[in-house]
Amino acid sequence: MSSFSARFSEWSDRRAPTLLILPTVLIILALSIYPLLLSLYLALSRFKLVRGGYELKFVGLSNFKKLLFGSQQYHFLGTFGRVSFLEWCFLALIAVGFGLWIWRYLRSGKAGPFGLIGRMITATVLTGLVLLCLAVLNGKGFPGSLVVTLFYVFAGVSIQLVIGLGLALLCAQRIQGRNFFRLIFFIPLMVTPVGIAYAFRMLADVSKGPFAPIWQWLGYGDFAWAVDAWSARWVVLIGDSWQWIPFMFIVLLAALENQPGEQVEAAKMDGAGGWQIFRDISWPAIAPVVATVVLIRLIEAFKIVDLPNILTNGGPGIATESMTLHAFIAWRTQDLGGSSAVGYMLLFVTVVTCVSFFNFVAQKTREADA
Amino acid sequence: MSAKSTTSSPAQPAKSQRTLFQRIFEPKDIKSLSPARLVMTYSILIFWSFVVLFPLYWLLVTSFKLPIHVSDGPVYLPFIDFEPSSHAWSYIFFDLGNDTFRPYMNSLIIAFASTVLAVLFGSMAAYALTRITYRPKIMSIVAFIVILAAVVVATIAAGIPWQIGLAVGAALFVLFLLNLAKHFKRALGNNDILFWIISQRILPPVVAVLPIYVMFQQVGLLDTHFALIVVYMAVNLPIVVWLMRDFFATIPIDLEESAELDGASRFRIFLTIVMPLAKPGLAATFLLVLILSWNEYLLALFLSTADAQTMPLLVAAQNATRGPQWWYMSVLIMIMILPVIAMTGLLQRFITRGLLIGAVKG
Q: What is the ipTM of this complex?
């Protein structure tokens, strides 16, 4: 018996490099890579319930075609309005900007085929997304789940970054009770998003919620935010920001506390103003951290589902539906192929956005820092 | 203009010469803040505390309200505005009884088990990636993906039972490793593995959840603790590897080397020397992952129906037939926050440090 255990421990020591990493690799293969391939297959086929089970028929790209050009276009991309001349000019400006960016990269002498392809993909996808936003947001169109998700991601992350950074800057001054505020501001992170959704449904109620007297005083006593598309989206966004501002705040405050204090004081001695100190000392010191927090938030923000599902149920109509919720609703109506196709589109947009941000923004701040 | 005023202030000869304006708007010395700035800072911070705490206060108050207190418009202060009632609390704890405790226990078991496993496996992998050099061959990975894709097509399209498909696929891959793999030279490094693991976090759960649903259905594990534990572990592993790798990288290697000279095995070194040193990182990672799996909603919605139902689902279900039951929801949300607050209180001093290291090194 003892010889067996001795042999086992010898074997495990010899095999340690493999044994240490194997569980993680196996779990990810089984529960990420394998499902990803399976889901690609689902996205390319039509699911049908038949007697005694189900049937999967391979239909090629028709699920994607339906989302991009067919019957589900209004749901995914949205309804297009006419893009006005000014908006075309704006788009041209963006395209020229990307063109210059790629041109500068080609002239920099460090250009390689992968870098060029990556930049072209980024430029094309982002320009396309801007065109889509222009087409559906100009008053005549109506956004689908893709643009709504982009709204949650970009508006949400910007708001969270600005408020989180502002609070962190205030808290990083020499004030009493910093730890108290740190503890209080951390709380929203701990609340389940489902709970936040219900709490904000109560708070946003203009006739029975706590702010009802204020609404009535302002003359909005019978305003139903859940019926208006934009107010419903903003309520979802506020709920999401309430939860995630603390995350930004905590990490950025820690980064600010880490920066050398002498530098700041020396700058003050030399008569630098608050804005100058922020721009020349604090910001360069925390820029890599900012980039990383924004990256983390970008990744997570694309997955938003609980808040729109509970707060508004995706409504009014499809006005607050995020892509994950869209996929979930498709799944509930037995449209497994459509659901997977939405999932894959989400994966595509997320990967392009996050990888572009990582390669072209986050890495830059780190190089500048080093 | 502000630059000029701050230069003059440290050189102030005597306090009495400062005008009222200067006394309010300029700091006394370089290290302190002017009174005006202090007032502004505190009012914003206190305002934000209000923003943070008010929704929770409202949940707490609502949990003591009768339905009539909610439907007749807002009342704010218990005992003054309205007479608090514990009807919701007694309904949740006594009338519902097991229907509350079972999801609660489910949530506790699933969240803690998946967190412990994710932190354990994740830090093993993270440790290995900082201390051991791996060189996986590119062709092996390509072969693996090709075989996996073939298995997927064979099991679904050709209707071969998945057990057979999986066994044949595994056999093929092992054969490849033993016979063909040595002919290929190009390999990846540790950073590629790390990037591959972390990038799994980008994968939106909704892409993977349908196949996972089908997989668990095939093996009859749908709506069990096991299914949710495994899935939450998989979802959170990338975060653990990300945070812990940077933490292990800051631990000096000398201790481990001397232990190795003494003949300690890798696992022994990992468990008795490295893990204790990484305590702050472990605590922060543990808390973060625990919060994420405790509050998770979408995957639970797909993978559990009754037996393994978790708390977020129970909260969401209070909206069912008679319209939203605000008072019951509030009680449930309050009792859901409690364990997390307790854990945070226990681990609070580690959080900032642990989170920062991950964010700085990324």
A: 0.86
